[in-house]
Write a structure and sequence with these properties.
Number of domains: 1
Radius of gyration: 21 Å
Shape: elongated
Number of helices: 4
Order of helices and strands: HEHHEH
Largest sheet: 2 strands, parallel
Strand content: 5-15%
Length: 74
């Protein structure tokens, strides 16, 4: 009887620890190069929030590549 209770409790614990929290925003990383100014302007105006896009501004191309390789940006 104890084994059944422990089994049910562990299954319940397993299912409650699962998370379906998925961030559906498109994450784009950019540098502060002048060519990306239209994207930065759109972010400041709030137009990207409507489109569900998150703009990440980084200081170097190397940092941009680290974000991409880690899967934190597109």
């Amino acid at each position: 009887m104890k084994k059944i209770i422990i089994l049910c409790f562990s299954i319940l614990l397993l299912f409650t620890s699962c998370s379906s929290k998925y961030d559906e925003r498109l994450k784009v990383s950019t540098t502060n190069w002048i060519g990306y100014l239209p994207l930065i302007y759109a972010k400041e105006k709030g137009w990207l929030k409507e489109l569900n896009i998150k703009l990440l501004t980084v200081s170097s191309l190397a940092e941009n590549m680290y974000l991409y390789k880690a899967g934190n940006s597109v």
